[in-house]
From TrEMBL, chain A:
This is Mannitol/fructose-specific phosphotransferase system IIA component (Ntr-type). InterPro entries: PTrfase/Anion_transptr (IPR016152), PTS_EIIA_type-2_dom (IPR002178), PTS_SugarTrans_NitroReg (IPR051541). Pfam families: PTS_EIIA_2. It comes from the Bacteria. One of its GO terms (molecular function) is transferase activity. It comes from Longicatena caecimuris. Residues 8-155 form the PTS EIIA type-2 domain. Keywords: Transferase. PROSITE patterns: PTS_EIIA_TYPE_2. Signal peptide: none annotated.
From TrEMBL, chain B:
One of its GO terms (cellular component) is plasma membrane. It comes from the Bacteria. NCBIfam families: FRU. This is PTS system fructose-specific IIB component/fructose-specific PTS system IIB-like component. Keywords: Kinase, Phosphoprotein, Phosphotransferase system, Sugar transport, Transferase, Transport. GO terms for biological process: phosphoenolpyruvate-dependent sugar phosphotransferase system. PANTHER family: FRUCTOSE-LIKE PERMEASE, FRUCTOSE-LIKE PTS SYSTEM EIIBC COMPONENT-RELATED.
């Protein structure tokens, strides 16, 4: 994966390390969607939140291994984005009838059909990385945005 | 064992590609030949060829939206096992159970 692509999609403003565990998934949704909005990834926070919640209603986004992978796809996403939040300790993530401890949240902003961009491949690559131990096992050792980019690049 | 699979999901990004990777990793670890076709937001990729479908011992459908070009599998219904991509991600070994 080329640096420029990764750097364009992993949203710097939406990477948070060692956040206090969230009281709920919804609290995390609010924070990360706000970051997407501030970074210009989405043009309307409410519309994106609705897309996230609609996806949650269709099936769980708790992926095991301390990972939550919420994602929303709508036309108010104007560029592909990945938010990453690592919590200082796990919080209870409830998703469509499933629940589990989540420490690592990857939130995807997926452009709708009207706004599809050339970076959607990066979102797909990130989803694949989450199935790889060599990536997931290193998530605790990342200290900065640049180290996260390097880890993603090394594992993809 | 020769395994072919198709993954797809509602939003076409997250589960499709994570399930594909989980299947490939599981098969590699357990020494099964494996090819995974993804039907996601990037279109159909790594499309299974007729001879690969015919030669497969197991055909895995890991989908929660309809499979495109499903008629390719009409002759091999007895080899098909169906799962949700979510279940495959959480435990890929279910494909052999």
């Amino acid at each position: 994966m080329a640096d420029i692509q990764l750097g364009n999609v992993l949203t710097k403003e939406a990477m948070i390390l060692d956040h206090t565990p969230f009281n709920s998934k919804e609290e995390m949704f609010q924070l990360l969607s706000e970051k997407f909005f501030e970074a210009g990834v989405i043009t309307n926070q409410q519309a994106y939140l609705t897309a996230l919640r609609e996806r949650e209603a269709m099936g769980p986004t708790y992926m095991g291994n301390l990972i939550g992978l919420p994602h929303g796809r709508c036309d108010e996403v104007v560029k592909s984005g990945i938010a990453f939040c690592r919590c200082s300790s796990p919080f209870l993530y409830q998703s469509c009838g499933e629940e589990g401890d989540v420490k690592y949240v990857f939130m995807l902003a997926i452009p709708g059909n009207q706004s599809a961009d050339q970076y959607m491949r990066v979102l797909a690559t990130l989803a694949g990385l989450l199935a790889k131990e060599e990536f997931v096992d290193q998530l605790d050792s990342v200290h900065s945005y640049d180290e996260m980019l390097a880890l993603m690049k090394a594992c993809s | 064992m020769k395994i072919v699979a198709i993954t797809s999901c509602a939003t076409g990004i997250a589960h499709t590609y994570m399930a594909a990777e989980a299947l490939k990793k599981f098969c590699k670890k357990n020494h099964h030949e494996c090819k995974v076709e993804t039907q996601g937001a990037l279109g159909i990729e790594n499309q299974l060829k007729p001879y690969e479908i015919e030669a497969a011992d197991l055909i895995v459908f890991a989908n929660d939206v309809g499979i495109s070009k499903a008629e390719r599998f009409d002759k091999y219904k007895d080899k098909i096992k169906k799962f949700s991509p979510h279940d495959v991600i959480k435990d890929p070994s279910i494909i052999l159970k």
